[in-house]
């Protein structure tokens, strides 16, 4: 995924800047989300990975499949991605585009991974702490991972806060091995 996000970032930035200047951010979001959904389909994956299928044919199939979502400009994005063999990066492009939308609105997406489910009070406390630290509104999603043993790991953009027991034990092990 890290390689795909590297490819996706410039396309997402360009699309976002174009969408902002045209005051069409929601329409573009719908287009890039539709593109990501179509590209993630197994049959489409097979199509875009087949070197025998010309890029413009790949692009046209995707444009036709999402016809209601693509205007002339977003269809050009699909063609450009196909021409540069970057259609695989569409899901990451959509995620990065969304993060640009959130940043423009002063919001950040965050994920809290905990050993056990967070109750509503813990969740609200975590959101408040992140809002203070980041200076932005926080949309928090949560999931459980029993491998953490206890505590929580938070991912918010490029920031990772590891307050898990597993992370602390790892830090201790590294410190003791020096």
From TrEMBL:
Pfam families: OSCP. GO terms for molecular function: proton-transporting ATP synthase activity, rotational mechanism. InterPro entries: ATP_synth_OSCP/delta_N_sf (IPR026015), ATPase_OSCP/dsu (IPR000711). Its main location: membrane. It is found in: Cell membrane; Membrane. Keywords: ATP synthesis, Cell membrane, CF(1), Hydrogen ion transport, Ion transport, Membrane, Transport. NCBIfam families: ATP_synt_delta, PRK05758.2-2. This protein is part of the stalk that links CF(0) to CF(1). It either transmits conformational changes from CF(0) to CF(1) or is implicated in proton conduction. This is ATP synthase subunit delta.
């Amino acid at each position: 995924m890290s390689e795909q996000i590297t490819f996706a970032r410039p396309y997402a930035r360009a699309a976002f800047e174009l969408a902002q200047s045209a005051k069409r951010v929601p329409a573009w979001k719908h287009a890039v989300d539709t593109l990501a959904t179509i590209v993630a389909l197994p049959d489409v994956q097979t199509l875009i990975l087949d070197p025998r299928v010309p890029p413009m044919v790949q692009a046209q199939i995707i444009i036709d499949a999402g016809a209601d979502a693509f205007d002339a400009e977003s269809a050009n994005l699909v063609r450009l991605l196909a021409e540069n063999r970057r259609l695989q990066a569409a899901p990451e492009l959509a995620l990065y585009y969304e993060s640009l939308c959130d940043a423009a609105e002063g919001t950040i997406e965050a994920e809290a991974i905990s050993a056990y489910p967070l109750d509503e009070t813990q969740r609200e406390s975590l959101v408040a702490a992140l809002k203070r630290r980041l200076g932005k509104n926080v949309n928090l999603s949560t999931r459980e991972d029993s491998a953490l043993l206890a505590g929580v790991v938070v991912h918010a953009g490029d920031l990772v806060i590891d307050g898990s027991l597993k992370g602390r034990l790892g830090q201790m092990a590294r410190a003791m091995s020096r």
